[in-house]
Amino acid sequence: MPWWADQVKKNGRHLYTGNAPYRISDNSWSADELPRQIRLNRNTDGCDGNVYFRVTLGLLDNPKGFLDSLKNHYYEYPALTPQMSWSDSLPPIDPIWVTIEENNGKAVIRWGHDLPTKSDDEPYRYIIYKWPESKLPDFDNPEYIYAITTPSDPDSVTDWNYSGYVYGVAALDRLNNESNVVTGTRSAIQFTGKVPESFHLFQNFPNPFNPSTTISFDLPKDDFITLSIYNLRGQLVKTLISEFENAGRHTVEWNASNLNSGVYLYKLQSAGMTEVKKCILIK
């Protein structure tokens, strides 16, 4: 038994051992030493888990060839720190919407959140769950964690293997208290290969949005078109498309992360047709 084993549960502590391969280039260490240490720690009562520390000449450099073994057997799934019983247990506010937009062989999972009130805890990160349509989700099972965002990440993730799966998003605060899981709904826009009968600009989705939204439009014939964004003063903010496009339904994603909150106009223009719609950016 490790020397620290009888100390870990005093005063309600949670213990996570740290493992770092700072000596594995030394010939006195065999390639199975780090996995052996991990197994020893995980089999000790009172050890809640372990953290891998990445160092120069560490795991990413795969110095003794056990990178795949560690990833496949010890660090296969993302993990969350459990709730600390002695700390604030107030969960953050739930995401107010979650959508799944299918396009070009991928699914983009997006979510939005409201501003917290004085009695609410502010979201700090988000956890994205993914589970088969044929099963009930078990949110305590790390196999169902698809991704955990960082504070600097956008409010969206992309998945190329989405057919037959359901997605849900929960908010995490700085103490890893978790909100309710909000299940995603599929985008209302259906993309088909049929030639449209008329020129048409769709309402962006989602709307309001932060920071990205999808704009779709129909072209009944091949044409040169422009799709541009304007502010309410009529000033051009960005040109998304300015080229010859084939007849059909088209979609483009607009990322407005560099703009302030507000109402914007997006205009689709061809040789003989123009349509304009409003969208709302909320940060």
The fourth-level CATH homologous superfamily of the largest domain is Immunoglobulins
Termini Cα gap: 52 Å
The CATH architecture term of the largest domain is: Sandwich
- The CATH topology of the largest domain comes to Immunoglobulin-like
Residues in β-strands, percent: 35-45%
Average pLDDT confidence is 76
| Largest beta-sheet characterization | 4 strands, mixed
Order of helices and strands: EHEHEEEEEEEEEEEEEEE
Q: What class do helices, strands and sheet pairing give?
A: mainly beta
The low-confidence parts are 55-59, 187-192
Q: Percentage of helical residues?
A: under 10%
Strand order of the largest sheet: 7-4-3-10
Which word captures the global form? Answer: elongated
Total domain modules: 3
Radius of gyration, in Å, reads 25 Å
Tell me the number of helical segments per DSSP (H or I, 4 or more residues long). 2
Layout of SSEs?
Elements: E1 15-19, H1 33-42, E2 47-52, H2 67-73, E3 97-103, E4 106-112, E5 125-132, E6 145-148, E7 156-159, E8 165-172, E9 182-183, E10 185-186, E11 200-201, E12 212-219, E13 223-230, E14 236-245, E15 248-255, E16 262-269, E17 274-281
Parallel strand pairs: 1-2, 3-10
Antiparallel strand pairs: 3-4, 4-7, 5-6, 5-8, 8-9, 11-12, 12-15, 13-14, 13-16, 16-17
